[in-house]
């Protein structure tokens, strides 16, 4: 319950933690976070089959940490792609649509 206000206070306050939270990588991570959320389950589902495909190359040394790191990287990459290819253009289109006003103001053809 207090995490949001706490993080907001830290990001706008001074100190090393506030500076870290306000850094460009952290702000970018915040921008793509919803897209990362949307793709993370698919990434987790895809990691084991991908590991099986790569087994001849990387061998049998895979651990749980390898799978977790791969899922995080795949989630971040997929989230960034989804953000830039779908979410950001849709947001731009919606904002332009809202600024134009309602469709009822357009003249109708007879």
Largest sheet: none
Q: Strand share of the residues?
A: under 5%
Q: Helix share of residues?
A: over 70%
General shape: flat
Please count the helical segments.
Answer: 4
Description:
This protein has helices spanning 3-12, 15-21, 24-58, 64-100. The chain has 110 residues and is an all-alpha fold. Helix 1 crosses helix 2 (15-21) and helix 3 crosses helix 4.
Blueprint (SSEs and pairs):
Blueprint lengths: L2 H10 L2 H7 L2 H35 L5 H37 L10
Helix pairs in contact: 1-2, 3-4
Notable traits:
single chain; 110 residues
Entry summary:
The protein is mainly alpha-helical. The protein is built from 4 helices and no strands.
